[in-house]
């Protein structure tokens, strides 16, 4: 083990990292899965000539499936994202039992001193009732207080963590002092239907059929996942938007 790190070695961030590392996800996956129900498996081999009529028919079918909530055709695809975010974001993530997760382990590796501090744009004042909270900007003094206290506690916690490791205490024990704003990383794999379910709950958008009020930090992750998915499956994404952002 090395020496207890100085404050300069500790990193503070206010952003989230989301990378699409692997995907097999196309609008055609939805179309094949849907058409085999009525036309048989030969449609999986059938080639289209890419005409305007084909695109119109495809868009119509996907919209019908989304609108009438025929969900299973949206499951025949896969996306794997690499995510770096604070631990408290991951705990919210794993409320969604529609994906596969592999997170770095504090039992087997030494946790890096990277901590989340809300950016200046993060709204700090909570108003409203449970389940329908809204947030308003804090004062500059509030923003400074959050930053100061978060940095102070994070630094002290990591110092305690390092001292226990230096003493030969197992990582799985030493990690108990680390706060929830410590960054972790994970791979998350899901299909488009599961992702739509996630996005419907973890983003706040005007015009949705079922308004959601997510914590801002997990919404920051969801927004990046949504942007990357939208380029993979544009017709499916268009139908999701058109039909009130409800998972089929």
TrEMBL record:
Function: Catalyzes the reductive methylation of 2'-deoxyuridine-5'-monophosphate (dUMP) to 2'-deoxythymidine-5'-monophosphate (dTMP) while utilizing 5,10-methylenetetrahydrofolate (mTHF) as the methyl donor, and NADPH and FADH(2) as the reductant.
Single annotated GO MF: flavin adenine dinucleotide binding
InterPro entries, A to Z: Thymidylate_synthase_ThyX (IPR003669), Thymidylate_synthase_ThyX_sf (IPR036098)
Enzyme Commission number(s) of this protein: 2.1.1.148
Gene3D superfamilies given in the database record: 3.30.1360.170
Domain of life, per lineage: Bacteria
GO BP terms, alphabetized: dTMP biosynthetic process; dTTP biosynthetic process; methylation
Cofactor note: Binds 4 FAD per tetramer. Each FAD binding site is formed by three monomers.
Record key words, sorted: FAD, Flavoprotein, Methyltransferase, NADP, Nucleotide biosynthesis, Transferase
The keyword S-adenosyl-L-methionine appears for this protein: no
Family: Belongs to the thymidylate synthase ThyX family.
Cofactor(s) listed: FAD
Pathway(s) annotated for this protein in UniProt: Pyrimidine metabolism; dTTP biosynthesis
Protein name: Flavin-dependent thymidylate synthase
Membrane-traversing stretches: none
Reaction(s) catalysed (UniProt annotation): dUMP + (6R)-5,10-methylene-5,6,7,8-tetrahydrofolate + NADPH + H(+) = dTMP + (6S)-5,6,7,8-tetrahydrofolate + NADP(+)
Binding site for dUMP: 92-95, 103-107, 175, 202
């Amino acid at each position: 083990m090395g020496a207890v790190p100085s404050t300069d070695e500790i990193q503070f961030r206010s952003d989230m990292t989301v990378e699409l590392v692997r995907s097999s996800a196309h609008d055609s996956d939805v179309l094949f899965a849907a058409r085999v129900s009525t036309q048989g498996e030969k449609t999986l081999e059938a080639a289209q000539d890419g005409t305007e009529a084909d695109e119109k028919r495809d868009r119509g079918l996907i919209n019908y499936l989304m609108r009438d909530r025929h969900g299973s055709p949206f499951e025949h695809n896969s996306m794997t994202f690499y995510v770096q975010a604070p631990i408290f974001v991951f705990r919210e993530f794993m409320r969604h039992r529609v994906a596969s997760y592999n997170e770095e382990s504090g039992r087997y590796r030494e946790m890096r001193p990277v901590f989340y501090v809300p950016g200046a744009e993060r709204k700090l004042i909570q108003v409203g009732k449970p389940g329908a909270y809204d947030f308003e900007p804090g004062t500059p003094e509030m923003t400074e207080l959050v930053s100061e206290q978060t940095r102070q506690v994070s630094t002290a916690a990591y110092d305690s963590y390092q001292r226990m490791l230096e003493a030969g205490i197992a990582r799985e024990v030493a990690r108990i002092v680390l706060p929830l704003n410590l960054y972790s990383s994970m791979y998350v794999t899901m299909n488009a239907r599961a992702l739509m379910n996630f996005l419907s709950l973890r983003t706040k958008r005007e015009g949705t059929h079922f308004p959601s009020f997510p914590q801002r930090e997990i919404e920051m992750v969801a927004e990046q996942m949504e942007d990357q998915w939208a380029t993979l499956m544009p017709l499916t994404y268009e139908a999701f938007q058109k039909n009130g952002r409800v998972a089929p």
